Amino acid sequence: MTGRTGRGVVLEEFGAPLALREFALPPAPERGMIVACGYGGICGTDLHLQQGHLPIPTPLVLGHEGLGTVRELGEGTTHDAVGAELRPGDSVMWASSIACGTCPPCRLHREPTLCENRRTYGVNRSTLNGPELSGSWADHIVLQPGTTVVKAAEGVDPLAAMSLACAGPTVVHALYERRPVRLGEVVVVQGSGPVGLAAAAFAQLAGAAKVIVIGGPAERLDRAAKAGIGDVHLNIADAADQEQVLNEVRAATGGQGADLVIECAGVPQAVAQGLTLARRGGTYLVIGQYTDAGDTLVNPHQIVYRQLDVIGSWAFTGAHLVEYVRLLPTLAARFDLASLVTPFPLDRHADALAAVADGSVMKAVLTSCPPPRPPPPARGPPAAPRGGGTRLGRPAPRTPGVGAHRRTWTTARTAGAGHGGAARRISRPRA
Description:
Layout: E1 5-11, E2 19-24, E3 33-41, H1 44-51, E4 60-61, E5 66-73, E6 91-94, E7 97-98, H2 104-107, E8 119-120, E9 140-143, E10 149-151, H3 158-163, H4 167-178, E11 186-190, H5 194-205, E12 210-215, H6 218-226, E13 232-235, H7 242-252, E14 258-263, H8 268-275, E15 278-286, H9 300-305, E16 309-312, H10 318-334, E17 341-345, H11 349-358, E18 363-367
Parallel strand pairs: 11-12, 11-14, 12-13, 14-15, 15-16, 17-18
Antiparallel strand pairs: 1-2, 1-4, 3-5, 3-9, 3-18, 5-6, 6-10, 7-8
């Protein structure tokens, strides 16, 4: 050990308050590194982890999305994922999971997002198995060999980068690999949480003719509109007559339905509604059902009658994180991403979690000795991504990310970080 210590927010018992604990900080592992976490995002999945809705080991330091400063490089660590030289003091982001590379999805099916043995920071790395500081809700994190690490985008506010830190790579996988957005398409996004806003923003960058966001509550939709995300914003969360809102969505598409409907709500009942919002011959892309929130009734005739392509997309890989970081200057120039984030000091983790649960914030981020924030980029026409144009290059194979709220179709006015939020109100975790 080094004699150094670090603090982390620990899940010790399901359903119990989290605890801020101090741990010994080990030397940087070979081919790994120690990062001083400036920012650790709170995702919808974190709420479910705390309540015991997912089978994970305890105790563990939570947090699977982060941005920080390299403190120490392990032996053999010299460059990031794109070949840029790394030095202590560099600002970096890192992928949440490491795929094993040997299970059938990794080895045979070229689907590392479906890895059967993935290791995920802040999710399945117990403090009992070490190193203890293996989550981003901490002032330091120990990154292991195999982690995809990339230098943070220069000139981009760290809060802007953290606004979609999990949602962004998830949507890169979904929209630029599972079902790309095509020029001139009409796109409907179900859900106005981070994943829904990421889907809407990326669809706009990809050249969609119109992007319609359906979600709520009103404050969340207003924030999206002020940030420049989406062209039409319709509130189904507070609607007395949801069918009337769905008719407004259809009318906004021109009456025929959308070319592409993207589910980012995490509400099972939203799926049946979404199938009816696509045009005949269109596509229904499901991103938001990351956590099993139960069964729902679906009329399969709608799939056949509309001759729909129904596609699922699970999580993301380090390659998708790299693409997200490459896009950040363009995203931050066009959309006011930092306005979506509410920062909380690390010792106010309970307040931050409560704000995510009750929907009073769009995106909560824990801060701990953050590096200096650069001035915001000049607003104006977005710079083209590498290679020209606004369409992402095809990412390399994928590895899991995390995030999605378990939701119930109730009247609770709560919000979803993680994978979005829509419909009649959602995101209070089920006990």
